[in-house]
């Protein structure tokens, strides 16, 4: 019976989703690359025509040359390793705290009444409003940046975990109660499996928000190295090739994190569904 409840919680919400999962995966659609390629071609043509005589417009060749220099010197590896280490640490701490907080708010009426109003108020405060307080308490080093990233990851995970638990169909809970499930069994076999899609949405958002917060922290808490500091150096030195190179790297890393999060979500949900069957 436990497997039956888990299977109900894990299977798609409608028949069309099940049919979509059963269909063989199509080849990769490359139409999304059309717009970036057109933009690069226009950029290349504009820079080659010398219509704009300004240091603000550099050619793609200059950006490629800068990329080679950054990679060859090891500067890119050092910057990325520092930023990604902060991202991983902040995401892990914030996601864990957010899951525990969201679980408490979703499972406990006392926690929802005591902590819920304060959490709802906390969500309304802009993340960057905490920077002055964090810088005073933790300084400008990595500790302050990790705290900032943890806050960025905590909010979406807590909110989506709580909402996912509250959205579990009532008949699932009633059936578990009729079968005399303990509180732990109810959470393990009914509530968590049914709330997993919402929890993964929170984790996905937390991963993206913490990456964006990484750049914000490196801009505002400038001590140390990181990809954000590469952008700052390029701006201060009036090197638009370095700035554009940094922007491209930031976008590529964000895209990779997005793809990784989606793949992990699909793998875990599919594995749970197969196990439940």
Automatic annotation (TrEMBL):
InterPro entries: MetI-like, MetI-like_sf
Segments passing through the bilayer: 33-52, 91-112, 124-140, 146-168, 189-212, 242-261
Keyword Ion transport included in the entry's annotation: no
Keyword Lipid metabolism: no
Record's keyword terms, sorted: Cell membrane, Membrane, Transmembrane, Transmembrane helix, Transport
Chief place where the protein resides: membrane
Subcellular location: Cell membrane
Family per similarity comment: Belongs to the binding-protein-dependent transport system permease family.
Protein name, entry field: Aliphatic sulfonates transport permease protein SsuC
Organism from which the protein derives: Paraburkholderia hiiakae
Name of the gene: ssuC_3
